[in-house]
Amino acid sequence: MAEIVPMPDLGFEADEGELSVWLKGVGDAVQAGEPIAEFESDKVTLEVESPVAGVLLEHLIQPGESVAEGAPIARIGEADELSASPVPAPSPAKEPAPPPAPEPPKARTPSTPLPTAPQEVEPAGRVPVAPADNGLLATPIALRMAREHNLDLRRVAGSGPGGRILRGDVENHLAEARPGAIEEVVQLPPEDGDRPSSVGTAASPLRRTIARRMSQSKQTIPHFYITSSVTMDDALALRRQYNEAFPADAQVTVNDIVVKAVALALRDFPNLNASYIDDRIEVHTDINVGAAVAVEGGVLTVTTRQTDRSPISDIARENRAMIERARAGRARPDDVAGSTFTISNLGGYDTDHFAAIINPPQAAILAVATARETAVVEEGQLAVRTVMQMTISADHRVTDGAECALFLQRVKELLESPIRLFLGG
Questions:
Q1: Considering only the top CATH level, what class is 223-422?
Q2: Active site residue: 149, 223, 284, 396, which one?
């Protein structure tokens, strides 16, 4: 008996996903767990996997359509059910009806508005696949990539149904492109110097999500900030020894060390592992630390779960895989959902100090700057130490200055005596 494949949960605030491309056609054999379609939302590209082995009997939606969680997208069953599938065979193209004869133009008086082009009305619930400039069809993600790379899609050969340009077609073209293959979309100003005062571009879905959430955070959450300095020499030395003893795929970054230290400190300060919701402080039982990752066009937060219980080797491995997927535009819903506390680390960007905006509905976020050699005074003697500044932004509805100062002190203790961070969970 045929089985319906539903749209899976995208895992965060997205209400729906847009079908970019079918990876399997009607009549193709599929295995359980094999990807059959690719969906896109504002944060992730999601591959939908077949729940069972069998034959793909029917596509219930088409590329460019958006569907909500749980909506049916395909049917999978046995090969002998294919002939009984209600999907009709493609019919010959019908001769289009001749357009109606245009009405003679009416005389325009000063009060008569200028005529405008008629607006096309799309059928309810159907979002067409967007055409490229020359009428070629392209999936939404292919169009987005073309905009991001200033690429003329007329140069790209489409491999999808009907010559549709897919994500892989754009990726292959960019990989093989010569310097002259990329064209600027924005025209250069004329030689006479008559240039526009500004050039605008539409915000990407990710940028719109960031704008909405950060505006919500600053408008509704009363932030306060506390900064502390931590000496990182012992942590950096232990990291160097650890990485020398393990292969490349087990290497630990400074951010992994900070993530582990924060997770252990949250055990002692559960009020910071919380959310303020409907006049209640909801303290989360799991400690899931998110790490902000710079991606093209914005920032995503990838999440390790039960971070306080996970060995630092597992944290490093999971973070590395999630960061690679995020930067490749293939983050999974589980990668970016479920964090209870966030770290924003700009240590790799030559940053002295900064304060981050809380990621709602969390109660706090920790901003980490660059660790640098600094002259310090220890017991009356001048010494050079590697010092890193960290700043907590906290929700004053949930916590207060003294609690956050003690939390930073605990994180500092763990980073300055780092052996515990490398010993198990």
A1: alpha beta
A2: 396
